[in-house]
Amino acid sequence: MTTEFTKDITGAVVDSLKGTADPRLRELLSALTRHLHDFVRETGPTTEEWERAIGFLTATGQTCTDTRQEFILLSDVLGVSMLVETLGGHRAPGATESTVLGPFHMTESPVRALGADIDLVGAGEPCAVSGRVLSSDGTPLPGAVLDVWQADAEGYYDVQRPDIQPPGNGRGLFTADAEGRFWFRTCVPSPYPIPTDGPVGDLLRATGRHPYRPAHIHFIASAEGHASVTTHIFVAGSPYLDSDAVFAVKESLVADFAETDDRSLAGEFGIPNPFRHARFDLVLEPR
Ligand code: BEZ
Ligand code: FE
Question: Where does the Intradiol ring-cleavage dioxygenases domain start and stop, copy by copy (predicted)?
Fold first, then answer.
């Protein structure tokens, strides 16, 4: 009897979704029902455990504010963001790989001129970042837009420490020049822990996981007629490249922030010589 009921209830809920006007919504809700029911059949949670799970999700929602997105963080630490990102992207050969958006892109990056310094505090090791935005056949994409954001040298985003960092610190919206080139100054990013003072932190502690991400700079690159890419560049040699708390490292996204001794190039970037220089191209797939 019990066995029959647990089988039938799944069919009954899936049947109840038949009237869903949007076929994709119906597909998603039906699959969600089947997988959730299978999860319950497999693990047999007690009522107390289920209440605890609901309490956890409630606390996750209650932790979200205009500058904090605990649900994105939860999706990130469970590897779901990376799965969605990777399965959803249809990447032309040679196009830049995507990775997670993360929860700190909630504010608009200030428009900045090429060459500007996005490190408004000036506390970190200066570095120059440069490259080109190209189509997958190698054609430069003049006017491509790059949205850039990163944590400061101590591993915090502007929205996490508004008392210390001015709004827009570590952020910039750049437009590539007539040859698709971009360049800007910043500080070398550091590895940092994702926020652990909420429910996701409790989950990491309960599972004995560390909260660290390897040093990186975020980019969203977009250009007319091309699919945008949301990605990072990771600092070669950074700790945690092989154990990112959100599983977002892809080999192709690791870049050398090379020690560079070149007075004339330093002059072009307006940076003291010698300096650290990350150079890489962002390659977009035509739509
Ligand atoms: C980030 O890199 O900003 C980030 C990504 C996922 C979770 C937390 C932070
Ligand atoms: Fe980040």
Answer: 129-157
* Ligand 1 contact, 249 CB (< 6 A): no
- Closest ligand to C-alpha of residue 247 is 1
Structural domain count of the chain:
2
Confidence check: pLDDT of 3 > 80: no
- Ligand 2 centre distance from Cα of residue 218 (Å): 6
Question: Would you say residue 274 lies in a domain?
Answer: yes
180, 92: one domain: yes
Please name the residue that has the structure tokens 């430069």. Answer: 140
Please tell me the predicted confidence (pLDDT) of residue 7. 66
**Is the pLDDT confidence value at 26 over 60?**
yes
Q: Is the pLDDT of residue 166 over 60?
A: yes
Query: Same domain for 123 and 39?
Result: no
Specify whether 32 is located in the same domain as 169.
no
Q: Is residue 74 part of a domain?
A: no
Query: What integer pLDDT is reported at residue 1 of this predicted model?
Result: 45
For residue 255, give the CATH number of its domain. Answer: 2.60.130.10
Q: Is the CB of 73 under 6 A from ligand 1?
A: yes
First to last CA, the chain: 54
**% pLDDT > 90, the chain:** 85
Segment 133-153 mean pLDDT = 96
Q: Could you read off the pLDDT of 174-209 as tens digits, one per residue?
A: 999 999 999 999 999 999 999 999 999 999 999 999
Q: Which domain holds residue 129?
A: 80-286
Ligand 2 mean position, distance from CA 103 (Å): 8
Beta-strand ranges (E) seen in the chain are 126-135, 145-149, 171-175, 181-187, 192-193, 212-213, 216-222, 229-235, 254-255, 257-260, 275-279, 282-284
Record the pTM. Answer: 0.89
Radius of gyration of the chain (CA): 22
Judge if the beta carbon of residue 104 lies within 6 A of ligand 1. yes
CA gap 48, 46 in Å, rounded: 5
How far does the centroid of ligand 2 lie from the alpha carbon of residue 78, in Å?
17
